[in-house]
Amino acid sequence: MSEDTVAAAGPAGETEEQVLPRSAEETPEGTEISDMDIVFDCPYCGHNLAIDYRGAGLQVMCVQCGEAVSVPIPEDMHIDDLDVEPGEILKQLFKTRRMLRDAENRIVELEEALDAANARALESEAAMEATYPVRAEIANLADQAVIALRRIADLTAPPAPAAGADSAAAE
Ligand SMILES: [Zn+2]
To answer: How much is the pTM?
Structure first.
């Protein structure tokens, strides 16, 4: 088997270079996690995933369960840390806005579904359990929306904040 066969069977159309997640769990070859990786758990199946830091805030597919999950942005990371072209930032911004809008629309749909399910849940325990995945998805989408908002804030922030002392004006 050749070593350079990367599973690149992406969805049709999306041909731009993608940062892909990988399993961060023990494999026969061992795990390769670097300082540049973001390590997080899939909110759906709990699988431990790792992705290059450039994947922060992006939506990726879990290698284990195939669900779309958003990569968390580390607290101490800013878009400035990524050396990206202004054009790339703009592209990311549009992508992020679209992702946010999709997440918001989906949350509205899910909340309606949840309302209906809750109404039925009064009648049976099984129906109650059926609401768990919906709740999980809403929670995940809410996380994504927050990530998207933070990313938009980051992307639209002035590029080089002057290290001034204007925080003294707060008092
Ligand atoms: Zn998963």
So the answer is: 0.43
Distance 162 CA to ligand 1 centre (A): 41
> 27: CA distance to ligand 1 center in Å?
17
pLDDT per residue as tens digits for the range 82-126: 666 777 777 777 777 887 888 888 889 988 988 887 787 777 777
Boundaries of every domain in the chain: 16-74, 82-157
- Three-state SS string across 20-72, please? CCEECCCCCCCCCCCCCEEEEECCCCCCEEEEEHHHCCCEEECCCCCCEEECC
121 alpha carbon to ligand 1 midpoint, in Å? Answer: 27
**66/60 Cα distance (integer angstroms):** 9
Q: Per the structure block, which two tokens stand in for 151?
A: 């990313």
pLDDT of 115-134, one tens digit each?
887 787 777 777 777 788 88
The CA 7 to ligand 1 mean position distance, Å, reads 17
